[in-house]
Amino acid sequence: MNILRIGKVSLRALSRNKMRSFLxxxxxxxxxxxxxAMVSIGQGAKAAVEARFNAMGTNLLTxxxxxxxxxxxxxxxxxxxxxxxxxxxxxxxxxDAVKYVSASVGSRAQVIFGNKNWNTSIQGASDKxxxxxxxxxxxxxxxxxxxxxxxAKVCVLGSDVKKNLFEVDDPIGQVIRxxxxxxxxxxxxxxxxxxxxxxxxxxxxxxxxxxxxxxxLGIDHISSIDISAVSADKTxxxxxxxxxxxxxxxxxxxxxxxxxxxxxxxxxAESAAAxxxxxxxxxxxxxxxxxxxxxxxIMNIMLVSVTERIREIGIRMSVGAREKDILLQFLTEAVTxxxxxxxxxxxxxxxxxxxxxxxxxxRTIVSxxxxxxxxxxxxxxxxVFGFYPARKASKLDPIEALRYE
Amino acid sequence: xxxxxTIKLEHIHRIYQVGDTEVRALEDINLxxxxxxxxxxxxxxxxxxxxxxNILGCLDKPSNGKYILDGQEVSRLERNKLALVRxxxxxxxxxxxxxxxxxxxxxxxxxxxxxxxxxPHKTQREMAMxxxxxxxxxxxxxxxxxxxxxxxQQRVAIARALVxxxxxLLADEPTGNLDSKTGEEIMKIFQKLNxxxxxxxxxxxxxxxxxxxxxxRIHLRDGRIIKEEKA
Lengths: 405, 231
What we know:
The structure holds two protein chains of two kinds. Chain A is an alpha+beta fold. Chain A has two domains: 3-52 and 271-403, no CATH class; 81-258, no CATH class. Helix content of chain A is 56%, strand content 18%. Chain A is built from 13 helices and twelve strands. In chain A, a hairpin with a 2-residue loop joins β8 (175-178) and β9. In chain A, α2 packs antiparallel against α12, α3 packs across α8 (235-249) and α9 packs across α11. The longest helix of chain A has 44 residues, at 265-308. The radius of gyration of chain A is 33 Å and the shape is elongated. Chain B has a single domain (37-64, 77-230), classed as P-loop containing nucleotide triphosphate hydrolases (Rossmann fold, 3-Layer(aba) Sandwich), CATH 3.40.50. Chain B has seven helices and ten strands. A six-stranded mixed sheet of chain B has the order 6-7-8-3-9-10, with helices on both faces. A four-stranded antiparallel sheet of chain B has the order 2-1-4-5, covered by helices on one side. The chains are: A alpha+beta, B alpha/beta. Chain A binds chain B through residues 1-2, 5, 9, 16, 311-312, 314-325, 398-399, 402, and chain B through 54, 57, 59-60, 79-80, 83-84, 86-88, 92, 94, 98-100, 102, 111-112, 114-116, 118, 121, 160, 164.
């Protein structure tokens, strides 16, 4: 008895109860569709997170002033005031795994142009800021080293600030007021879009850190240093060099806590990617449960089908069907149901993820591996849940089966 | 050594265990059926003729004794081996036809071949067509069985029983669900097959008219052969 003929017999049996077959397969269709759609959402989110971190530069390290700890009372991050611009210069000169540094200090201020005003954050930075952050300008230029030395009152606008103060007008060369002081606009940064929820990097103004220190805040320390390693695979080495150097410069005794912390963006990116992977697994896992329910549906219908067809089984046995022939026939029916359900489910899943990305604006990625997985899983659901009813059918006593009304 | 004996039963017993009591359905049956015989097994209900038919048809195994079919002892074979014996050597014809409904006459006739050794489907088709022609159903091959009359259905069942060229046909009240005229037609087909193909035919019946067509009759009562007559 060859498998093709069995397939034909099974298909015919299924087509006799079209509605029932469809409803049974529907459990699998929805299950597989849900797995594919859910995993596509998770993978889309993961890719989006990764893309955002890549845009920020994967060889980026951030050195922040640490928490002040005085007799057990700990301040927050950045409460140390001993991080100085000279630290940044020393890092650049003495750590050979470091390519660029940018001293960083931040504030918030009310900015005014003409009759418009806007409250935004003021980022003090050095001239290497755009290179380190992999961030281009759409118009004008960035400030240079000379303007940092002289603490010139110049600035570069984030795209949101430009929109709010100038709308469509050209801001280059215009003078805006930050805390009532006049600042000349040198350039406009490219829009990054929403960069991950918590803060909008387009809503800020970048100015020389010296200007922010002296003219706006009146301080001589800085809050952090942005560091760019020579390459992405040198970030750990750069991190180590910076840590060692800073301990020496800040005269920290062996065994004592650092008064600073170095963060590696690649690590953060990795943990963010890991957390979206957990999300993917979770969504996929929930969807798998529905596939399981679909499998139970198949088992249920196959049991009904076996009971309905006891007489048929008896007839087949009387003309010479062996146990394995009957087993194979019913197993093929269950697998056919689940495989057809699987194929339709893949179509549904792909369609659903397309709709979600169109309507919901979510980024979705349907991967071949998730299709393959869902398909294989649905096939094995057919085998696993079809086996019990098929075995039950194959073990029937031919005499009783023939007599069954 | 192969003689022309199709069936040999030696001291066949069949005992069912129902709870604590033993039901002796068959006791010490000895029977020899030569090739080309038409035998009727007769007796009232409860006499054990169904049990005997099940054993002869390899649907059931005797509790004791020997059953030799075509020179092969089949009384101790396991389930799947018995299925093979049924497929190759036995053709069943049932009182209630036992055809697959909503399936064509041709496909019903092909059914035993589905479980035989690999023959191309085309050959199976041809064998089934020939078998249907033998019972006078040319032109009805593609009718669904539920569109056929009772007599035609029984003829499809006979065609199915014949398709694998079995050693014997085992007919259980083959005319029981048919009117007497159609019943006669079916009996004529059996006679014809026996005469032309020398097929051994065993009729299980309580109908004396059907039994009268057999060359040899055995009567069962309470699981024993009580009488044997020859025409």
